[in-house]
Design goal:
The complex is a heterotrimer.
Chain A: H1 3-14, H2 16-35, H3 39-52, H4 54-85, E1 90-98, E2 101-102, H5 111-115, E3 133-142, E4 153-159, H6 163-167, H7 176-191, E5 195-198, H8 200-206, E6 213-215, E7 217-218, E8 227-232, E9 243-246, H9 247-260, E10 275-282, H10 283-295, E11 304-308, H11 309-317, H12 321-353, H13 355-363, H14 368-401, H15 421-445
Parallel strand pairs in A: 4-9, 5-8
Antiparallel strand pairs in A: 1-10, 1-11, 3-4, 3-7, 3-10, 5-9, 6-8
Helix pairs in contact in A: 1-2, 3-14, 4-11, 4-12, 4-14, 4-15, 12-14, 12-15, 14-15
Chain B: H1 2-24, H2 29-38, H3 40-74, E1 79-84, H4 97-100, E2 119-130, E3 142-150, H5 153-160, E4 164-167, E5 179-184, E6 192-202, H6 203-209, E7 223-226, E8 229-237, E9 247-251, H7 252-258, E10 266-270, H8 274-287, E11 293-297, H9 298-304, H10 307-341, H11 343-352, H12 356-383, E12 389-394, E13 402-407, H13 412-439, H14 442-446
Parallel strand pairs in B: 3-9, 6-8
Antiparallel strand pairs in B: 1-10, 1-11, 2-3, 2-10, 4-8, 5-6, 6-9, 7-8, 12-13
Chain C: E1 5-18, E2 21-34, E3 38-42, H1 49-56, E4 64-69, E5 72-73, H2 79-89, E6 90-93, H3 105-110, H4 120-134, H5 149-161, E7 167-171, H6 179-196, E8 199-203, H7 207-210, E9 215-220, E10 223-229, H8 231-234
Parallel strand pairs in C: 3-8, 3-9, 6-7, 7-8
Antiparallel strand pairs in C: 1-2, 1-4, 4-5, 9-10
Helix pairs in contact in C: 4-5, 5-6
The chains are: A alpha+beta, B alpha+beta, C alpha/beta.
Chain lengths: 457, 447, 235
């Protein structure tokens, strides 16, 4: 249950900037309290005013929390996609694929030299193929050829098992123990090429357990059916729906098919390599390697292209551009505006009920700006606290309870609420509280002092 | 949708009864309306919250509605859609002509006046295209073009009910046919003659490609590059509202050679009607021995592609429910405050002789009126989304998927739904405070 | 009459315009209030007595004329200058007490002190002194809702004197109280005048309350119509 919070704490301790930010924030707050006369009084007065109508404060706060929840989910998706599509300058991955066609299909013979970054002569940059490259061969299969439902289908990345922990994205999300466990599984796959790793949810969907052997009937490699043994699962997370197959097993099976059927080659023989991933240390190296690859005479039929992973992903996400635009610029702002309005209604009502009190404060010498701060402060307090509460609850609930936000976009099946989201909530609360209370608080500071003497008689 | 309609009916009935009671039951409605007007800033803000909630809901639904409309109008129920067995979508399908050449002679397939079967033989490929620097929006560097190699475009047009907006179908002559020599006038270069292959474009993709060549849209006579070849636009299809709007149709042989896919991905067969299509599909799957096939009524195939829509719809409903709770709490605040400010008024009304239930209904109605106004305005705001074009993706959820251009569509049903949704929020949010108002003791509230 | 003058009002005129109509509330009015004087303002509704009080207390500004309180000419001050001036120089007592319901008696009294640059320890001392003076030390943690009307008004008086102002203005301070509590409040005000030498201006309808003042001014239609010197003072 406390898993993600522990990680969060470690995150903060690890990241000097975050740590510095947290410390600086605390110091500023403390300084404000110590050096600003009556700050405690203001805070207390705000708090007491919020407490006087618990129903109203409660309704406003719960409504705010729900809206922050939705915005956090939306922003999580946008935030994540933004990260994976923004170009990095250091230590990033690039994808080599067929130049013109989707899906990319290249001869497997390409892989040896492509993995080296098409190294051909002295002076070329050579990728370290033991750790900085990986190949992907997609192998889709059903476990029940009679019933080809979605539940029965497994979609494999055929790859070198040892590259799983070295090259796959998102490995940094796992703990040290989880990674070690995964490495062990991969080592077993090397020993026995029939062994596969299947994500927890996929395993559940096909209703199989670790240790079971299953017979696969391929969908895209017709006639190349494999018998495999499930050796284990990925740790909980983004690979819950994925599966990994030792590429040697697939390639050996293709060779065997071609030996057994002399004269006819399996149609996928020269199309079995889908992607090659390489890791480069910086942009300059990337450009060099890209040039090596695209100018190499070995890769012309079909021609290949090399692009950064982020740019490749961005192209795939392009189909979603209007949808994501709508999330970013329509849904989220509308919800934020709704939240501001709900806070505005609550604060307006409360100011209306307290006109007389506000007038008395002004009579006693409180300046309009002090009244303004008091009212703004109430709104900000309710907004920030609700926002913080909502963020914490969302963070825990989505990450630890539901195991992530399941909203498949392109090849991202699941989104994890980032630790950055913990400041979104309070920030949204402060922002919408401020926006919502601006008008009512201006109204409050315009209350006429002479209203105190207005009599009923 | 069934549940949604039932709920709307229930809500409508409650709404009608409440209003009927308002008129028959001598409820001091004027008093409530006057109060809404007097407290206009709070009334306005509460109604605005409803406007936003309903407005954004309508926009989201317009998007999904547009997707459903697109899938509906892309498929035709008298067509049989054939893929190879095991392919989750067109892009993964492999139909060798030698193996399946005979399927168009299935007795269910209609024939044209020259007694040739009405079958569309197609190869669907997706092509990567770099976007020229000047036409890039943001950091988008490439786009995917959906190219369909077509044996006989006019025939495919008949099968898919698609005509041309401008120009002509590309010619399908033998070797060398369908390629013409064009003169290129590239900036900063000498004009030169190059061979260009004829294609027809969907209107949507014609607009998408236009900016590459400093135009709003490509039209018949234009030339563009794809892969490392030149292509000549013979015509633009009248394809709005279907998935073909985002497609490029080219001569099958050229596509097969150029993109190395020497088999068909898709065959669409025209039959008499839906029953015939269904029978033909079953017949092909069961009795066609040369190759294992999947065959669907075309509309069913597109229905399968709706899983993305369903995913969106679920997400929208989820968001709507959560946001609705927010809206409900907002109006509760307003109504609780309205009642506590007017507790003296309520006392007076009770002493004059109004019954508790009349007080209840008067405040209940006040909440409903407030939410109705906000919701109606929200529908109006949301309606502005109608007609906008948006890109999206359509997939069966098992990989693949088509990029599509859809038109956001707001219809009367959605408007009604939006208003009812808003009124429902008003009812839920207004009921508790109204019950509170009903329970006020007249003398105590006068103190 | 006291020799030193605290409040000097000279040629004070106040009018409102409603549409094209000009409503004269105070008409060329002049008066002086001495240091330590207890003055009552009486008059029918609409006579302008509350407006006069508002202007002297710096809550409203005159249309023309001079108002000088102590060394300060307040008739020409801006609103924010007035606010700062009020905090230091004027204490207010209201008919409906106007305590903040969420704050305790102690905190209500403390409220005006928060606007002055004094230490927390000093604040506490002054609040306790004021509460002690009105006899409510034991009730300092009660909220207004837990106090009787008379007790609330005593908290109000404590709040009015906690900043040690020269001038205390009271608007119908006994208007909402039973006669026993009213008597106690008036005793308290007399005490303020006598032992602390506070100048008090009180608006009231109640002749009994007015009779506790040294001098009673009667207003009608914005003009001073008569002046009564209280018998108490004569003796």
């Amino acid at each position: 249950m406390a898993g993600s919070f522990e990680k969060l704490l470690l995150d903060i301790l690890d990241d000097p900037i975050k740590l510095l930010g947290a410390v600086a924030g605390a110091v500023c707050l403390l300084a404000l309290m110590v050096f600003s006369r009556g700050i405690f009084f203001y805070l207390r007065l705000m708090f007491l005013n919020l407490r006087r109508n618990l129903v109203r404060t409660g309704l406003t706060s719960v409504a705010s929390m729900l809206l922050v929840f939705v915005v956090t989910l939306v922003w999580t998706i946008l935030w994540f996609l933004n990260i994976v599509t923004s170009e990095k300058s250091k230590d990033f991955k690039a994808i080599v694929s067929e130049k013109w066609q989707i899906p990319s299909q290249m001869p497997f013979a390409y892989q040896a030299n492509l993995s080296e970054g098409a190294y051909s002569k002295e002076g070329d940059y050579k990728i370290d193929t033991t750790k900085d490259s990986m190949t992907w061969q997609f192998y889709g299969a059903t476990i029940d050829p009679e019933k080809r439902t979605r539940e029965n289908i497994i979609f494999f990345f055929g790859m070198e098992p040892l590259k799983v922990t070295k090259m796959l994205d998102g490995m940094e999300e796992y703990s040290k123990e989880q990674l070690m466990e995964l490495e062990k599984l991969c080592a077993e796959m090397v020993k026995d090429k029939r062994k596969i790793i299947v994500g927890k949810e996929r395993l559940e969907a096909i209703n199989k357990r670790v240790g079971e052997r299953i017979k696969l009937t391929s969908l895209n490699y017709k006639g190349i059916d494999l018998e495999v043994e499930i050796v284990g699962s990925f740790p909980e997370g983004r690979y819950n729906q994925s599966a990994v197959l030792n590429r040697d097993y697939l390639n050996d099976a293709i060779d065997a098919y071609n030996r057994q059927n002399p004269g006819t080659k399996h149609p996928m023989t020269n199309k079995s390599l889908n992607l090659v991933w390489i890791r480069v240390p910086d942009s300059a190296t990337f450009q060099k390697v890209e040039k090596q690859i695209t100018e190499s005479p070995s890769f012309t039929s079909p021609a290949v292209k090399c692009e950064t992973a982020s740019s490749g992903i961005a192209t795939f996400l392009d189909a979603y551009r209007d949808l994501l635009w709508g999330l970013r610029w329509i849904l989220a702002p509308f919800i934020l505006a709704t939240m501001a309005l709900i806070i505005a209604v609550a604060i307006s009502i409360s100011v209306r009920e307290r006109r007389r009190e506000i007038a008395v404060m002004k009579v006693l010498g409180f300046m309009p700006y002090q009244v303004l701060i008091l009212v703004l402060g109430e709104a900000i307090m309710v907004g920030a606290l609700s926002g913080l509460g909502s963020s914490l609850a969302t963070y825990w609930m989505i990450n630890d309870y539901f195991g992530g936000l399941k909203f498949p976009i392109a090849f991202f099946p699941i989104f994890t609420i980032p630790s950055d989201a913990l400041w979104w909530g309070p920030a949204i609360g402060v922002g919408t509280g401020l926006a919502g209370s601006l008008l009512p608080s201006l109204g409050a500071c315009r209350v006429k002092v002479s209203e105190v003497f207005a009599r009923i008689s | 949708m069934g549940l949604l309609e039932k709920m709307s009916i229930v809500l409508g009935v409650i709404f009608a009864i409440t209003f009927l009671l308002a008129f028959v039951g001598k409820i001091p409605l004027n008093y409530n309306i006057r109060n809404l007007v007097v407290r206009w800033p709070i009334t306005l803000m509460t109604a605005m919250a409803f406007t936003l909630v309903v407005g954004v809901l309508i926009v989201m639904l317009a998007f999904v509605n547009g997707m459903y409309k697109l899938t509906e109008s892309s498929g035709h129920s008298e067509n049989v859609f054939v893929l190879s067995d095991g392919a989750t979508d067109e892009i993964f399908s492999n139909l060798g002509y030698r193996d399946i050449g005979e399927i168009e002679f299935n007795p269910g397939v209609l024939r044209d006046s020259s007694n040739k079967p009405l079958a569309s033989w197609e190869t669907y490929v997706i092509v990567n295209q770099p976007i020229p620097l000047h036409a890039r929006k943001g950091d988008r560097r490439r786009r995917f073009l959906q190219v369909r190699g077509i044996l006989d475009p006019a025939r495919s047009g008949i099968v898919h009910h698609i005509g041309l907006k401008s120009g002509v179908w590309f010619s399908t002559g033998d070797e060398g046919g369908g390629v013409r020599e064009v003169t290129l006038n590239e900036q900063g270069k000498e004009p030169r003659k190059v061979p260009a292959t004829e294609v027809v474009l969907g209107a949507g993709i014609a607009r998408e490609l236009g900016p590459d060549y400093y135009k709003t849209a490509l039209d018949a006579g234009d030339v563009f590059t794809m892969g490392d070849k030149y292509w000549y636009v013979a015509g633009v299809m009248d394809s709005a509202g279907s998935t073909f709007d985002s497609e490029i149709w080219a001569k099958w042989k050229t596509v097969a050679e150029r993109f190395g896919k020497e088999s068909y991905t898709t065959v669409v067969l025209k039959t008499r009607d839906k029953e015939a299509a269904s029978a033909t599909a079953v017949d092909l799957v069961k009795n066609y021995k040369k190759s294992a096939l999947q065959a669907y009524i075309e509309t069913d195939y597109y229905e399968r592609l709706n899983s993305t829509n369903k995913q969106f719809l679920v997400a929208i409903i989820f968001v709507a429910i959560i946001v609705a709770v927010g809206g409900v709490f907002g109006i509760m605040n307003t109504m609780f405050a309205a009642i506590s400010q007017r507790s003296k008024d309520i006392g007076v009304l009770r002493i004059i002789g109004f019954a508790p239930w009349q007080i209840l209904f008067s405040f209940f109605l006040e909440a409903i009126i407030l939410s109705f106004l906000g919701g109606a305005l929200g529908c109006l705001v949301g309606s502005f989304a109608d007609g906008f074009t948006a890109s999206s993706i359509m997939s069966s959820g098992a990989g693949g998927g088509k990029s599509i251009l859809l038109k956001l569509t707001v219809d009367l049903k959605m408007i009604l739904g939006g208003i009812l949704f808003s009124v429902a929020m008003g009812m839920v949010g207004g009921l508790v405070p109204a019950l509170g108002a009903m329970r006020l003791k007249p003398l105590e509230s006068l103190r | 009459m006291a020799s030193e003058i605290l409040v000097k009002v000279d040629g004070l005129t106040k009018f409102f315009t409603r549409g094209s109509e000009k409503i004269e509330v105070l008409d060329n009015l002049s008066l002086n209030v001495g240091v330590g004087e207890f003055l009552a303002l009486m008059g029918p509704s609409g006579s302008g007595k509350t407006t006069l009080l508002n202007i002297i207390a710096g809550l409203d500004t005159p249309s023309s004329g001079l108002v000088k309180v102590g060394e300060n000419i307040i008739s020409t001050m801006s609103e924010s200058q007035l606010a700062a001036w009020r905090t230091r120089h004027v204490g207010f007592v209201f008919q409906f007490y106007h305590l903040l319901p969420v704050l305790t008696a102690y905190e209500n009294v403390e409220l005006p002190l928060l606007l002055l640059p004094i230490s927390a320890a000093e604040r506490k001392k002054q609040v306790m002194t004021a509460l002690d003076l009105v006899g409510l030390t034991s009730r300092n943690s009660h909220r207004p809702g837990q106090l009787s009307g008379g007790q609330q008004q005593r908290v109000g008086i404590a709040r009015a004197i906690v900043t040690d102002p020269d001038l205390i203005v009271a608007d119908e301070p006994t208007g909402d109280l039973d006669s026993k509590s009213a008597e106690e409040i008036l005793d308290l005000m007399t005490l303020l005048k006598n032992s602390l030498r506070k100048t008090i201006i009180m608006v009231t309808h109640d002749p009994k309350a007015a009779s506790r003042a040294e001098r009673i001014l009667h207003l009608e239609k914005g003009k001073l119509v008569s002046e009564t010197i209280s018998p108490l003072v004569k003796t």
